[in-house]
Design goal:
This protein has 429 residues and is α/β, with parallel strands linked by helices. The chain is 38% helix and 22% strand. The longest helix is centred in the middle third of the chain and has 19 residues. The chain binds zinc ion.
Amino acid sequence: MGHNTGGLPSNLLITGASQLLTLRGRVPRRGKALSELGIVKNGAVLIRDGMIAAVGSRADIESLPEARTAEKLDVGGRVVLPGFVDSHTHLIHAASRAEEYELKIAGASYEEIARKGGGILNSVKKLRAATANALKKRAHRALQEFAAHGTTTLEAKSGYGLDLASELKILRLQRELNQEQPLEIVSTFLGAHVVPAEYRTKPGGTERYVALLTETLIPDVAADKLAEFCDVFCDRGAFSRKDSKRILEAGKKSGMLPRIHAEQLTRTGATQLAVQLGAASCDHLEQVNKADIRALGKSNTVATLLPGCDFHLGLKYAPARELIAAGAIVALATDYNPGTSPTMSMPMILSLACTQLRMSPAEAIAAATINAAYSLLRDNQIGSLEAGKQADIAVFEVDDYREIPYYFGVNKCWMTLKRGRPVFQKAHT
Ligand SMILES: [Zn+2]
């Protein structure tokens, strides 16, 4: 590919897509509509200044006058789809927790490890000690991995700081990374990840930490516009439903929409709370009951499933089929984090969604693109390939889109473009 020159408009014509998955159509996708990929055979995309100018069959797009002068990219029969939108990650952390991985394999539960000061508190200790520079370097490397697997936008949560300075350190780094590298980062404040160690030993410690969150951290984060969303880990060993409500309401009052970690290890009623509060997303859902599923089916709160976490911990998966049947807006995300889901690979998540959650390849792709974009309130800009949207595109080295989840543990991503510019290209092709 050539380079853009001077102030000329950067037009790019992509042709040679054996299947072009546009994902055009209704948003969000529920029920049967979740399988609608809007496939164009032998498709083409015309990009102008990072935005999609036209999408359609090769013959139609090539006949546009603008197409003749555009740079050309023939993808040689590969599959083209919208870049993945990873709507749940814990991007910034200081180190892996490989030592706990081994303990878990030997039989220790996630909660046992957490009680011994491992788990999230282990990551908090390491993050507080880490320099912003070291954290940024690690996040940069991770972002390159995300791009290499076809992801073009990701949500990132704070939550390994749990004091004012450290939470602000994370959120400011996310803002810098969003400006300094091509992938788009959407920030969520997760000060309510767990109660930090220094509050656990104090009398009324949880209450005091919740007060710190609602009276200091949330207003400060909002005043600096450091996060669009406010999240809570509502579970045994983390925050109760009552505390979660207080925290999310405070976030809402400060202009941050709720997201929630719900019914992962135990059922707490967090899903019902998410629906009541009009949360953008309700994530995990392994332990939901029938009433929760019904409530999600009738709401606009996205049901974000994180099968990487259950795979890594060896726990049961969320009832995706029941959620889809009830009409819930199902999305998929990596939950990239050092304790429970150390992966940047959305294709691996699609593989797990297909084999473990029994979602079809088409459903999994829609869940990882347009529905995830909806959960981040960005369905007007990303998540499908339609005129007027950002040219966020993934190209996979397969003949048929079903091969994207079918191959697992190998990376079939061939090229990733963010706003029309390549951010990843497979070597030696
Ligand atoms: Zn999470």
